[in-house]
Each structure stands twice: as structure tokens, then as C-alpha cells.
Write a structure and sequence with these properties.
Blueprint: E1 6-12, E2 45-50, E3 64-66, E4 86-91, E5 94-98, E6 104-107, E7 115-118, E8 149-156, E9 162-165, H1 172-179, E10 197-202, E11 208-213, H2 228-235, E12 240-246, H3 252-269, H4 271-274, E13 278-283, H5 290-304, E14 310-312, H6 321-342
Parallel strand pairs: 1-3, 2-4, 9-11, 9-12, 12-13, 13-14
Antiparallel strand pairs: 1-8, 2-7, 5-6, 5-8, 10-11
């Protein structure tokens, strides 16, 4: 399935039905009076969060959604049937903006049930409603009001516990393959991953973490270079960042500079991202002698002033990968327990 993380759609609620003009006509009851009923209300359009969706690709072709209109009123004071509501399923992490003003309407990550995005029009009044002591036989009705219509911009931000970040070709996709059943594309050239991929790391039978493999970051990404903003948008929702570094390609000094490039992009896009818990993962250790690996690790700690964990992995062989994820699971579990205590 092609990954799409932005879409623009139009949602239209149903119109209200018109009021009915009618007079009671029965044998032996002369001048029965007005009995025209009201029109039915128009249906509403709901956005429904669906955890089974992780892309907005369905909206590439279907972009207009309309609820049913209310029916016209009837005689004998019968109210017209209400218009059918319409439900639009969207991924759980979708943010919904007004396409004109760019105002955030709702973040579907915080919604547990359907959210009414547009309201249906009210049904018109039948002539019975206009009966009074001075007007016993009104011939007046009112039409139903139109339903609301809105153009919406949908923006998907993946919901993941752990985000994998780094420069292109750092081995993020191979790492995701090693710790989950996900099968992202892997190749020996940069920018193999062109869209975020999700995998699930399982720790036991009923415990798991959702891991997001985000396309590689290049300098200028915070201002839209490369996959730029598409990458950084999804990092916002992750709780822990694993920064993968390819130790088989450069010297320790070059690796420190590469680490600094990614950090600067995070800070320029959203300073809170640079402050999020982040661990370094020295990947592709199968390409480096153990003695060199030790000096690289010590050099990075000294150059960066790094006090957070540093892990050593080989995503190709799987060595060290599950250890990182088990520690991540325990770390986030402690975070959850700590937040629970605060409450």
C-alpha cells in the first residue's frame, strides 16, 4: 500500500427537509385545520479513529463525503425522516485542520470515538407550526436549512513508542527487520526508505512496542530539504528516539559531526524534539574491529559529552538489536509508572 500522510477532503452534512403544507380533510370534520409536519434534520458527518489504518491513501481518490438529507414533512403532522449520518474512518494519529484557516479542529489521537465534524441542517417547519388564534388556517411553511460544509486538511502523524532516526543508509530498515516482523525495503544505497514504516517489537505474549522507521534525514530537512518535513512530523509523536549511526563508514570525528547534523535539524524544527529521550545505537559493528569500536565509543562520549546509553548492534546479524529494544521497553514502562504516580 502506498503511504500517504497528507490529504484534503470536503465533508458536507445533509440539508434539512422542507416543512409540509397540509390541512386535515376527513368526513364529518369540517375545517379540520392545518396538519402539515416538519421536515427531518440533515445527517451529520463523523470522523472515526481507526487503529487498523496507518495511511491516508484512501483519500487519494475519494475526497468528497456527504451525509443524507432530511425528508420533507407529511400530512397528519408527520415529521420527515432524518438524514443518514456518514462516518469517515481515519488513522488514529490524524490531525484535522480547516483547509482555509489552517486552524486545528481535532487531533484524532486524543479521540476514543466518533467526532462530529459537520452538523446537519435543521428541518423546516410545517404549516401546523404557524397556527395561532388569529390565523387558524396558515398557508405558510419554512424550508429546511442547508447542512454545514467544510474543506479539511488531514495530516497523519504516526503513533509510535520508538522512532528510528539517522542519516540515510544508517541501517534503520535492517534494524526494524531484525526486531519485528516488518519487511521494509533494504538496499545498498541511500534513501531506500521513502515513507515511514511501522513494526511491532514483542516483549512477552502481551507486551509490545510500536517502532517507526523514518526516512533518512539530510541537512536542511527542517526547512523541507529531501523528505524533510514529512520525516520530522512523524518523530513528534514518538516517546523515545534511537539514533542509529553507521560506524563502518567514517571516523569518530565524522560520526560526531553527522550526529550533530541530525541534532540541529531536530532543534530547528521543534526544540522539544532535541530534548526528547534519545539513545545512540552504533550500528554495523560487524564491519569494525572490536578495538576500533571501543575507541569510537569513547571518542563520541568525550566529544558530545554524552551521558545517555550507547548501544552496539549489527542489524544484519541481529546482534545486540533485541537488547536495545528490551531496555527501551523497560525504560518506557518506568516512564509510564512515573507518570501514574504523579497523577
Amino acid at each position: 500500500m502506498h503511504f500517504v500522510d497528507e490529504a484534503t477532503i470536503t465533508v458536507t452534512a445533509g440539508h434539512g427537509g422542507d416543512g409540509f403544507l397540509s390541512f386535515r380533510r376527513e368526513k364529518y370534520i369540517p375545517r379540520g385545520g392545518p396538519d402539515g409536519g416538519d421536515g427531518g434534520h440533515g445527517g451529520r458527518v463523523f470522523l472515526v479513529p481507526d487503529t487498523g489504518l496507518n495511511t491516508l491513501s484512501v483519500f487519494r481518490h475519494a475526497r468528497r463525503f456527504r451525509a443524507g438529507s432530511g425528508a420533507r414533512g407529511g400530512n397528519k403532522n408527520r415529521t420527515g425522516a432524518g438524514g443518514a449520518d456518514y462516518s469517515v474512518a481515519v488513522p488514529k494519529g490524524t490531525m484535522v485542520f480547516d483547509a482555509g484557516t489552517q486552524e486545528l479542529i481535532v487531533d484524532m489521537a486524543n479521540e476514543r470515538g466518533p467526532f462530529a465534524i459537520v452538523e446537519g441542517g435543521r428541518g423546516g417547519r410545517g404549516n401546523t407550526r404557524f397556527k395561532s388564534s388569529t390565523n387558524r388556517a396558515p398557508r405558510r411553511t419554512s424550508p429546511g436549512s442547508p447542512g454545514d460544509e467544510r474543506e479539511l486538511k488531514l495530516e497523519l502523524r504516526l503513533l509510535a513508542d520508538v522512532g528510528l532516526l539517522g542519516l540515510p543508509n544508517a541501517g534503520k530498515s535492517t534494524f526494524l527487520r531484525a526486531i519485528s516482523a516488518a519487511k521494509p525495503k533494504v538496499a545498498a544505497y541511500p534513501f531506500t526508505t521513502l515513507a515511514p514504516e511501522l513494526g511491532v517489537f514483542e516483549e512477552g505474549t502481551d507486551s509490545s512496542l510500536v517502532v517507526a522507521d523514518i526516512p533518512g534525514l539530510i541537512p536542511g530537512a527542517a526547512h523541507g530539504a529531501g523528505l524533510g518535513l514529512q520525516f520530522l512530523r512523524h518523530v513528534r509523536r514518538t516517546r523515545l528516539l534511537l539514533h542509529l549511526i553507521d560506524v563502518g563508514s567514517d571516523t569518530a570525528t565524522d560520526l560526531a559531526e553527522a550526529f550533530g547534523q541530525v541534532t540541529r535539524e531536530l532543534r530547528e524544527f521543534d526544540v522539544r524534539l532535541s530534548e526528547r529521550p534519545r539513545w545512540i545505537v552504533l550500528n554495523k559493528t560487524d564491519l569494525v574491529p572490536e578495538v576500533d569500536l571501543g575507541s569510537i565509543k569513547a571518542s563520541l562520549q568525550a566529544t558530545l559529552g554524552w551521558t545517555a546509553p550507547i548501544y552496539e548492534t549489527s542489524a544484519v546479524t541481529g546482534e545486540g538489536c533485541r537488547r536495545v529494544m528490551r531496555d527501551a521497553f523497560l525504560f518506557l514502562m518506568r516512564e509510564d509508572e512515573g507518570s501514574g504516580d504523579d497523577e
